[in-house]
Design brief:
The protein is α/β, with parallel strands linked by helices and about 350 residues long. It folds into two domains: about 160 residues, Medium-chain alcohol dehydrogenases, catalytic domain (Quinone Oxidoreductase, Chain A, domain 1, Alpha-Beta Complex), CATH 3.90.180; about 150 residues, NAD(P)-binding Rossmann-like Domain (Rossmann fold, 3-Layer(aba) Sandwich). Helix 2 crosses helix 3 and helix 5 packs parallel to helix 6.
């Protein structure tokens, strides 16, 4: 937006460190002046930003994540995609579409090297560049070492990473893909639109019982987005030499309390299971390979990209809480005004 000859924009700041889940009073949305870019810098108008459960841990000040926590009084950050509107660096020009980590604000001004140009025509909407497909891909292929014929279980399967992990597992040769989610409607969505072989609402009794019922011959790969009871149940149902990719900790993020963890590890030892944590930043070399495959799958209609769009930065804090409470399916993004 403009005020006279000056450009202004909204940004979101953390104003208090909550104990447990944050509330509306822990954030402020303020209008600030947006400077013109200095030499070597660019000015970007954000189009979409990503909302992710891990942001709640950054809000809480968790120290065990491989990223800086959100500081009180400072604008928050996160993955975003936007358009260059002014450039003082020859590497980027006006109109370029770029990805970066300066989310939670309408405009971003920073050194040109902190922005990564992407193909404007790659996808039907720029927001798809913010998807979690690469996370799912490296979790399956590298952390879990997916093999054709595997039975795969995905927790939080209706979320951003889970929807992709289940579909990619199927496309990469899994014999059976099972998902857990938080409602009967989401379970039907998984087995309907997204092609999972089976899905269940984790509220319907002990998770371990549901898994034994749905996968009586065991699970070869568990893609863990949740931790807690889901992880303990999966360990009990895993087949010998099964592989677990530890991707997320939604159980902890949604409650604000420490996770009880995997429990007694005797089953892990006895079954010779592999549990491997990972971050996508360790596997950036997979990005070109995944991008090529993902575009092909999309063009052929072999994969469904599931997305929820929230309009306006002012609605982002509440949307983040709603996301963790299971209100949405697929990838959740915030769309900025035009």
């Amino acid at each position: 937006m403009f005020s006279g000859t000056s450009r202004t924009g909204l940004e979101a700041r953390l104003v208090a460190r909550p104990k447990g889940l944050p509330g509306p009073g822990d954030f402020e949305i303020i209008e600030v002046a947006v400077p013109e870019p200095a030499v070597g810098h660019v000015l970007v108008r954000n189009l979409f930003m990503s909302l992710e459960p891990a942001m709640l841990m950054l809000i809480a000040g968790a120290s065990d994540l491989p990223m800086p926590r959100y500081e009180i009084g400072e604008v928050m950050y996160g993955a975003a995609i936007g358009e260059v509107v002014a450039s003082a660096d020859p590497s980027l020009g006006t109109g370029d579409l770029v990805m970066h980590r300066f989310g939670w604000r309408e405009y971003a001004v920073a050194q040109a090297g902190l922005f990564h140009r992407v193909d404007r025509d790659a996808y039907p909407t720029p927001s798809i560049h913010l998807g979690s497909g690469l996370v799912a891909y490296v979790g399956l292929m590298d952390a879990a070492e997916l093999r054709p014929g595997d039975t795969v279980f995905v927790s939080s399967a209706a979320g951003a990473t889970g929807t992709m992990a289940g579909q990619i597992a199927r496309l990469k040769g899994a014999s059976r893909v099972i998902g857990s989610t938080g409602s009967p409607g989401k379970a039907a969505h998984l087995t309907g639109e997204l092609g999972f072989d089976a899905a269940f609402d984790y509220h319907d009794g002990p998770i371990v019982d549901r898994l034994r019922e749905i996968a009586p011959e065991g699970i070869d790969v568990y893609f863990d987005n949740v931790g807690g009871e889901h992880l303990r149940a999966a360990i009990e149902v895993m087949s010998p030499h099964g592989r677990i990719a530890l991707c997320g900790s939604l159980d902890r993020q949604s409650t604000g309390r420490p996770d009880d963890g995997p429990g007694d590890l005797l089953s892990v030892m006895g079954k010779r299971l592999t549990m491997r944590g990972f971050t996508v930043s360790d596997h950036r070399d997979r990005a070109p390979e995944f991008s090529t495959q993902f575009r092909t799958w999309l063009s052929e209609g072999a994969i469904v990209y599931d997305e929820t769009v929230i309009d306006g930065l002012a609605n982002a804090p509440q949307a983040l809480l709603d996301l963790v409470k299971g209100a949405y399916t697929g990838k959740t993004v915030v769309r900025f005004g035009t």
